[in-house]
Amino acid sequence: MSSSPPLWLGPASFAVALVALKARLSGSSKTSQEHGAPFALSQLPTNDALSVVNPARAPAEPHAPTPQDVLGPFYVLGAPFRGKISPPDAQGVPIVISGRVLDAASGEALPFTVLDMWQADPGNAEYDFHFADGKPETYHPSHDPDIVQAKTGGRSSQYRYRTRVVADHNGRYEVETVKPPPYYDPDDVCECTSKCLCAWRCPHIHVFAQPTRTGNSELITQLYFEGSEYNDTDKHFNQESVIEISQPQGRTYQVGKYDIYLPRS
Fold first, then answer.
1. 14/20 Cα distance (integer angstroms)
2. Residue 57 confidence (pLDDT)
3. Please, are residues 256 and 96 in contact by the beta-carbon 8 Å criterion?
4. Which of 83, 107, 109, 211 could covalently link to 216 via disulfide, CB atoms 3.0 to 4.6 Å apart?
5. Distance of CA 194 to CAs 147, 233, 234, 238, 239, Å?
6. How many CB atoms lie within 10 A of CB 257?
């Protein structure tokens, strides 16, 4: 049996997911056959049908919303839809991160939520980012609102270490990457014993969750890694946002679990 990470979605399944998302957003009743995919949306399995093949889940329960975090200066619009944050030449142990996107108030799934995800390049500890006009954008982390305010001035040359994924009809998502590096950010300081230490960001992955269901708010958060360097001095680190990482026996990749709970709007 192969020790490679599992694939996120095959071409046909990915096409169906995108068509379903488009139909959900536009209210269209077109089938995926009209868009060149081999299935009609009516052929997608219902929750009742899936319960036959999927193991039973615990009853949905309310949960505290996922902690919000700063957007950061390196968000860009238009990242491609794909199952990997990391590019093919990424160095490091692959991590397959999966979970569900859920309504915090009820614990019910939020299907077809779009997740923008981005991180620093482990090779140079930088983001694939530049400004469209070559001029610095006025930005400081302390200026970020608690609620998302998307910036549109940034660009990415190759969208390295950036992706968008769509949660399925059960709110499930899965994405592959490698662990991001810590990096030095002299503008992001706080009051502590050593401001030099405070200016280091610990390894993290940015997530911008955009629900398609009316009634839930967008959410920005950052996912962290247990035991990483600078966790104890990074002012943004939040233990509630730590990914549960494990190493499957006989596999060359790690797996991470993290459920995202969106607040009501």
1. 10
2. 55
3. yes
4. 211
5. 30, 9, 11, 20, 21
6. 13
Question: 172 burial class (0-12, 13-18, 19+ CB within 10 angstroms)?
Answer: middle
Closest CA to 73 of 183, 190, 195: 183
Residue written as token pair 């046909």: 12
CA distance linking residue 161 with residue 117, whole number of Å: 8
187 DSSP β-pair partners: none
pTM of the model: 0.73
Q: What is the pLDDT of residues 177-197, one digit of tens each?
A: 999 999 987 766 555 555 555
**What's the N-to-C CA distance of the chain in angstroms?**
46
For residue 85, what are its two tokens? 């944050």
Gap between the Cα atoms of 233 and 67, Å rounded: 18
Give kind and range of the element (H or E) at residue 170: none
